[in-house]
Amino acid sequence: MAVPMSPSSTLVESPSLASTASPSIARDDGKLDGAPSTIRPKDDVVLQASLYEGKGTAASPYVVKFLPNDSADPMQWTERKKWLITANVAFSTLCVSFGSSVYSGGLTPIMTHFGVTSEVCTLGLTLYVLGFAFGPLIWAPASELEGRRLIFACTFGPFALFHIGCATAQNIETLLICRFFAGFFGSSPLTNAGGVITDMFPASHRAMALSIFALCPFLGPAIGPAVGGFIGEFASWRILFWTMFAFSGAMYLVGLLVPETYAPKLLRQRAQALSKQTGDHYISMLDLHLDPNATYLNKVKGNLTQPFILLFTETTVFLFSLYAALIYGVLFLLFGGVPLTFQVARGWGSGVGSLPFLSVGVGMIAGVLVYLGVNKKYAADLEKNGGVPLEPEARLPITKVAAVVLPVGMFWFAWTVQPSVHYIVPILALAPFGFGMVLIFLGTMNYLVDMYLRVAASALAANALLRSLFGAFWPLFTRQMFEALGNNWALTLVAFLALAMTPIPFVFHRYGPRIRAQSKFSMEHPAITAAKARAAAAAAKEEEKV
Fold first, then answer.
1. 5: closest CA among 207, 252, 167?
2. Rounded-to-integer distance, Cα 290 and Cα 469, Å
3. Tens digit of pLDDT for each residue in 281-295?
4. At 362, which helix (H) or strand (E)?
5. Is 6 exposed, middle or buried (0-12, 13-18, 19+ CB in 10 A)?
6. 458 and 374, same structural domain?
């Protein structure tokens, strides 16, 4: 569940899960990236008190903030350091999402080994994705209190270890339980990695980093079946989980080298260190107005209730969440559908029969590249608008295009999967699906962020929760649907469902302002309100002159 960025940003933190980005931090100068690092955290103890506002008393403590050329400030780290950290959190997210679908390569041997039905075996996929739905409700508020680094250290280790449990399972029950907890603990990067990026990059510089990161939650499921298919065909199914343990274990060890990036945590630590060393009273600028009741349990309660309130009372949240959930469900349905159309119908092996998924990944990459171009245009329009954020509907034109492209790809795939058609034709059809999917996710999530502002994290949490539930349960009825309807009509049914959702971005692009006016939670960005007020005042003056 992704974090809402600054409303003037050009890309949402994460297409998958909600977390929290560092609040806007006042700094002594405008330097952001590549500033010389002349102050180290350990030097804080000798900094003059005059650098901070306040008197150093309990009633008027020194207010700690980041200083010029402050190497403890993530915004002032070097570009090289920022990109190394970005690569780490992106690959950590890729590792977790990859783990969801690589399991599909071992379905048949797992069924044979434990003597269970395909439905029971598919629960290993369902439970893993269910962990994505519920884990962020815990890890997101925890990161607000304890920072990014500690939460990663406490969750990614268990994520790796539960794959040992899967690899050594002696019964299906053990395997399924370990799969759920692997998804539950593994969801922390999906929750907080986008926040790490927003901690380091200002809004004007983060589009590329967030585009790369945003691709990972979707690229992982696209490449997982191909890798899992070859491992399942030429090695033991247990090797699948040993591979995941090696991948996740390596990412865990590298991730431990990543420093804390969450500004509230860093400033709080600095204030505590200065208070201890000097005997004076210091407080983080972000703790000045801290809610005394904002305990961990309060935050969990808010995370649990607010998304459901928005989901069932806000038409915008419900429709866009349903749209995203449907598409995500289709992606996971294809984990069972593609093997049926290429392995069963064409007689391909599980390895080669899973390669068509790579076409989805190619489409996703193309979609992200297109979105980078869209970001540039949005940034140019923003500059023309004097830096005043645009209306949320400015996010939807590319979503309208994607809403048309995606069902076209699905219908194309549905009626070219028969063996009489050359295999390259249906494989190419999967690329428009991946292209449309990633653009719909990015466009609609940005729309929700711009529309809901202060409750954007909850809006995205609702979106991700419903999406994860669809992704978890759709694979359970894939085989039955394909056997009952046949490959062509089963896929056609899914294509019609996607087509039924196509009008959503068109309707909101045209009637969005009217819909927002009726919302209880939507609020206009203050800069937009101020700009409208100035325009109205100017118009009033002109009328007076007349």
1. 207
2. 34
3. 888 887 777 666 666
4. helix 357-384
5. middle
6. yes
E strand spans, 32-123? 62-64
Q: How far apart are the first and last CA of the chain?
A: 53
Stretches where the chain sits below pLDDT 70 are: 1-50, 203-204, 290-296, 299-300, 302-303, 524-536, 545-546
Number of compact structural domains in the chain: 2
**What digits encode the pLDDT tens for the residues 441-482?**
988 888 888 888 777 777 888 888 898 899 888 888 888 898
Question: 408, 417 in Cβ contact below 8 A?
Answer: no
Same-domain status, 343 and 411: yes
Interacting residues of 416 by C-beta distance below 8 A, sequence separation 6+: 425, 426, 429
Angle at which helices 456-473 and 424-452 cross, to 10°: 150
Strands 282-284 and 62-64: parallel
Domain containing 226: what range?
79-262
Task: Give the Cα separation of 502 and 351 in Å (integer).
Answer: 34
Residue at 69 is within a domain: no
Q: Coil, strand, or helix at residue 524?
A: coil
Q: Give the pLDDT confidence score for residue 4 in this predicted structure.
A: 35
Q: How far is CA 177 from the centre of its chain?
A: 25
| Cα–Cα nearest to 8, from 390, 274, 293, 426 | 390
Under 8 Å between Cβ of 515 and 316: yes
Please indicate, yes or no, if residue 62 is contained in any of the structural domains. no
The predicted pLDDT at position 437 comes to 93
Whose CA is closest to 402, among 379, 376, 368, 427?
368
DSSP secondary structure letter of residue 339: I
Percent of the chain having pLDDT more than 90? 37
The predicted-structure confidence for 90-147, as pLDDT tens digits, reads as follows 999 999 999 988 998 888 899 999 999 988 999 999 999 999 888 888 887 788 778 8
Taking the complete model, does pTM exceed 0.85, yes or no?
no
> In angstroms, rounded to a whole number, what is the distance separating the alpha carbons of residues 201 and 195?
10
Looking at the structure, do residues 330 and 252 belong to the same domain, yes or no? no
Per-residue confidence (pLDDT) for residue 49, from 0 to 100: 58
Domain boundary among 262, 290, 316: 262
Token couple for 42: 């350990």
For residues 137 and 72, the answer to whether their CB atoms sit within 8 Å is: no
CATH value at residue 493: 1.20.1250.20
Say how far apart CA 125 and CA 127 lie, in whole Å: 6
User: 331 and 258 in one domain?
Assistant: no
C-alpha triplet 356, 485, 321: angle, nearest 5°: 65
Q: Does some domain include residue 87?
A: yes
Q: What is the dihedral of CA 356, 357, 359, 364, to 10 degrees?
A: 170
